[in-house]
Structure formats: structure tokens, C-alpha cells
Input
Amino acid sequence: MNYAWPWELSRAGVLNMNRRNIRYIGPYNPRKFYKRVDDKLITKKLALANNIAVPDLIGVVSEQHNIEQIPAMVKGRSGFVIKPAKGSGGKGILVIIKVENDRYYKANGAEVTHNEIYRHVSNTLSGLFSLGGKPDVAIVEGLIEFDPIFNGISYEGVPDIRLIVFKGFPVMGMLRCSTAASDGKANLHQGAVGIGLDIATGKSLHAVQFDKPVEKHPDTHFPLSHVQVPHWETLLHTASSAYEMCELGYLGTDMVLDKNRGPLLLELNARPGLAIQIANGKGILPRLKHIESLKGPTMSVEERVAYAKKHFCDKPLF
Amino acid sequence: MHSRKPFYLFVILLFITGIGTSVYRGLEHNIPFLPGEQVQSWAIDANITFSGSNNPAEVHFALPNDPAFDILVENTTSPGYGLTITEEENRKAIWSIRNASGPQSLFYRVTLVPTGKLDITTDEEPTDTEIYLWPATEKDAAEQIVELVWSRSATNLSFAKQLMQLINADNQSQNMSLLLSTNTSTKLFLQMLHTKGVPAVEVSALVLEDQRRRQQLSNYVQVYQDGVWHLFDVVNNKQGRDNNVVIWENDGGSVLDVIGGRNSQVKFSMLNDTRSALTTSIDMMRSDDALDFSLYQLPLEEQSLFKGILLIPIGVLVVVFLRVIVGIKTSGTFMPVLIAMAFLQTTLITGLIGFLLIVSFGLMIRSYLSTLNLLLISRISAVIIVVIFIIGLFTLVSFKLGLSEGLTVTFFPMIILAWTIERMSILWEEEGPKKVFVSGGGSLFVATIAYLAMSSTLIQHWVFNFLGIHLVILGTVLVMGQYTGYRLTELKRFKPLVGEK
Output
């Protein structure tokens, strides 16, 4: 039998799509604040205003005739990233890791011609990658120098750390590592490896690829059972303070570790996916209910992080 | 969280109103609940003949007045005559002519549909009956019989029953034989009832038999008891009525009165016919001006338009169910509904083949367009134009090959096809062909299910004839919007989370 009974899932505290939409996103994420996370440009500005570190902004392309300025913008940089401000699900993100004599190369070594860049940005501006096909702007960002500590657990891409923040409490986390199958992208449905992280320590608990448990990275064969995410405390703080910044109660925060600058906030998500539960091998519902049942005065970021670390610690499932 | 009570009350209200109005329509207007139902109808011709005498003539003819039959259509043929139909308590046709000479022939034709309401009920108490006064020769005999039966009966009904039995008894008393020698049994029955002031009237009725001609009306007696008129056929010693008896005139009056003519008589011929129950009820509503809340009052073109539009809620319901409860992913939320609408025109297999051909051709051409580095709007526009070319090409080719099915591809919504091609092409570039097949296959699966639901004759019959059903669909969609349970696909997806224990 490949199907679970609904009551088994319910006993395991698995949050499902319909309940997430009706019970959590609906009541806790007011519509009017959506643009703070759906538009990455606004997120970036808000983050800077709140002293949250983000990848540096090289420039913004908002008109078709500005596309030609991109080569000048990125001159002298070793790499850059072009992303749609209103993209979703990692769509439309172009990562150039090497710039050599005005020629651009992707992580897999393939060259990206200027024409391809123009077309990509032009598509972005027309709204090809944005929600509902609305016209968009393209953000050009500096490349993240990814922390060598993660060498071996990610293949052709930067691993990112996703934390679900509920009413300001980090409740569940995972490390997403790209694989050959995911084409350098860190989205689980595209084949990235998801590693569940202990909220208390930042240590790996469980790892999956395509919803199946794995013990080693499929491409690098790096063992995933003893991964320790550095700067864990800062990551928790950054994620937790994102709550005050965007005022969304049910929030997904995506962060990366830069070699020089430490944790950077990449983007926020008002509709974070459910796969994090599979990566953790655990349902998220009991933790959400725990936070919902909390009474008493509003806690500060430090208090919330401490509370989460105390109550949401786990044993590895490897 | 605010209270959910008003919401559920609202949904319950929707359900009750929807089901209530549908049932009301079905029962009140006799709209059949199943398509293709048949009902019987009777076509009755009444032929009135008389000889005119070069004088003005006026013909009063009672028209059928029976709750057991509805009048579907009625018309008259009477060259040279003026006609009025009085819509008073007892409907009558009045023909008149300034000069009638020689044999005259008038026709009244009516189509009757049985309603099944055989009881003749009335709210009004009949007015006091005039006590019948017997002629001196019959007085003693009649009163003896009446007193005897009266003392042995309890109600009007039992009184009438016993009287009828006595009149039709094999060995009659001398008194009865005397009375019957001067009276017909029906008249005698009526007079005896009136002696005791029992409300009773003589009625004229027609016995329906298929393909009979030159029939005459028979006389019956209606006896009143507790709000119901009971029918007695004294000649045949029978109480109650069969469903093939039409009461033509029920007030004791005459059926036919001719002023200014002689030898008048009326003959009936009749024919039994079965016809569609739905058409019958629509004709009935049309003649009653009761089409107010029905789409049948629209012109035919709008009606057929609405027949299509009213299927959309069904398609939407299928999509909501398959997405919310089952969890199938489709490309474009309501694209499958529109594809299913096109399938209704093309039929399923032709539609599927046509869709796959158009989309795969479109994807090939789109892959060339993507190398041209075009703006999104012009690329989509180009795809739309190319889709039109493809459809035109397929239509021409299938026409040349003599495949009439191929001609129906024109029913596909072109803008939707263009967007489908665009989305699938992006999906192909970003996530590979496998995702394209999953998402395209999901869409086609949903479209097929929606098509199967929408092409069912039962559903087509219901959504058009019982508009209340749309309130039920609305309520169901609202309830499904509140469904927080697991989707069927999630039971599989999250299986790893329970498997290890």
C-alpha cells in the first residue's frame, strides 16, 4: 500500500495543503502585506531598513531599453544573479558564476550569451515568471560566495536554509542542497536534497530526495547524517525578526551563508511548501498548535528564539 | 476565527432552496425528473351537428372541466361562425351566426393530458339542495324506499351506495319496478338523493378508448361528502372513477344547447398518443403563461446558448473536486473546463486527438519562436496565429480526406490553446518533458472527467430544467472551499511520514 490512511497522517500531525491555506495562510497572512514578500525588491529594501543582511543589489532593470546596461552593471564582478522581483518557486533565476572577458558562464560551465541574457530579462519584464503574468522588474544581485563549509553537500549551487516562522517563532527548518537532477536549483520538487534541521542545534536530522530518505548526497556521496549548519543562532534570529519586518504570521524564510558576510536573507515566502515535513520526517502541526496555544505577553526576538530552541529539539532519524 | 455558523446556515439555505425549487418545479409543472420520459395524451374531437332553419343560430357547448386532465391545446373549426369562450366557472364555447341554413357542422378539438388527480375536491360546501317533490303516483313508492335506505345508512356516501345497489338489484321490489318504468335509473337515483337533501348533481362524462369514433357522453351522478365529490355510474352499478373517464360537464347543466337549430347532436372521436413528458409540460406551461422562471421563454438561439453555459458549473464542480479533494495538478485552473466544452462539440476521441495534434504542433513551432528572442506579448500573439493556421490546416486536410470529425477542431478555444502551448513550452524548458506530460496529462484527465459529466443526458436535463440545482452546486463548491482534510494525492505524498512507525 502506497497510501497512508488520513487518520494516520492526522495522528502524525502532518499539515496538508488545504489546511495550510484555510487555517494558517488565510488567517495569519493578511493580504495587504503580501507584496512585502512577493516583490523581492520590496523585501530587500525592508530588510536593509531592519538591519537584516541581504545579497548586495547591483541594479534593477525595469524597462526593456535598460536591458543593454546589464553588461556595464556587472563589469568587474566575478559573478551575478538575475532574478524576477515577483517570481515564484525559483522560476526565472539566472545564476552566472563566472564572468570572463565579458563572457558569462553558468554553474555547469555552459556559456550564456548576451542574447540569451537579453531574452531572459525581456521575458522577466513581460511577466513570464511572475505570479499571474503581471509585468515585472528584474533584479541584478551580487553572487553569493558560498561558504566552503558546505563543500560536498551541494552540487552546482548554493545550499539554502529554509525556516518556517510561525508568529515569529522558528518552528521547523531544513537545508536545501541542489543536485544534478535539480539543475543547480534548491527546490525539492525539482530534485534537490532536503535535510531536516534540529531547531535547537542546527544539526541534520533526516534527509530526503524526491520524498525518499537518503543518507548520502546522490552526486557527491557526502554523508548527510552529521551536517552542522554554522551561524545557527544568527540564522534563527534573522528568521525570527523577519516576522516583525513583514508582519506575516505564517512565513517561510530562505537564507544562505556567504563566506564573508555570514547569513544573508534571500527571500521570504508567504506560502511556504509542505515538503519541509518530509525532510524532517515529522509533521509540523503539533508545533503550530503549540505556538497557537501560547498566552501571555508578546515576546522579543531573543525570547522567541530561546523558546523555540527549548521546545522544538529533536533526535536524528538517521 | 469568527463563527462559522452563518456560513453553514447560508450553505444549508442554498441546499434547501435549490432542492426545494427543483422538486417544486418537478411536481408543480410536471417536469420529468428523468430525461426521455413519455406521457399519454388524448386527442379528442367533438363534432357538433344540427340543421339550421334560415335563422340566427347560437350554439352553447360545455368544455371539459376536470382536474384529472390538463388541457394542452384546444382549437375549433367553425367556418362562418363567431366564437367566444367564456372563462367563467363552467367553461363554455359559444358559436353564433346570423343565418344558418341546412346541415351545420362545428368541430372542437382538444388534447388532454392526464394529471393523475382523480379526486374532485372542493372547498365550498354545496348550496342547499332543492328537495325533490315526487308526483303523486310515485310518492308513496319512492318515499318507502328512501326511508328504508336512509334508516340503514350513516352518511351521504353509504346512502348513495345502497340506493344504487337497490336500483340495480336482480330481484327488485314492486315499488322499484314501478319507479323504473317511468324514470331512467340515473334520474331515479338523483331524485332519491335529492329527496333527502343530499347534494348530488348529474354530470356528463366521456369514456376514453383509443381510436373510437362517434362516441357519446355518458351520464353519471356526483355525490358530495366531506369536501369530495364521489362519482356514481348508476347504469353500470359502479362507484368511483377510472382514469379513462373525462368529466365534460359537472354542473348538472346541459352539454349542448342550440338556439335556432334542430336535430342537434354531438359525437366524439378520440385518439391515444404518447409524447415526450418534457415537451408536454413546456407546452402546458406556455398555455398557462407559467414560464416566468423558465429558460424556455427565451428565443431558441439563446436557449441553446444557455444549454452550454449552464454546463459550466458542472465542469467547475468537477475541477474543484479533483483539485481540492483528489489533488490533481492541471495547467491553468479552468483550462480543462473549456477543453471539455470543446469536447462536447467534437466528441471525446476526436477531441483528444485534435487537442494532442494541435498542442504538439504548436510546441514544435513554439520551440522555434523561443530562439527568436521575442517579447512575451508578440510571442503569445504569434502562437495564437499559428494555432489558427494549424486548426485551418487540420480542417482542410480532414475535409479532403473525407473525415467529417476533423472539421470540429474549430470548436477549440484558440486563446486557451495558445496559452496552454506557451505554458507547456516554458515548463518543458525549465523542468523537462516529464513535467509537461504530467501536467498536460492531468489537464486532459480532468477535462475528460468534466466532459463525461457534462455530456450525461441526465445532467444536461437537470441543469437546464431545474435551475435550483445550480444553488446546490454553489453550496457544494462553498463547502469544498472549507475542506481542510488531506487530498488523495497527499495520502501518497506524506506516506513516508507514517511508514516508519
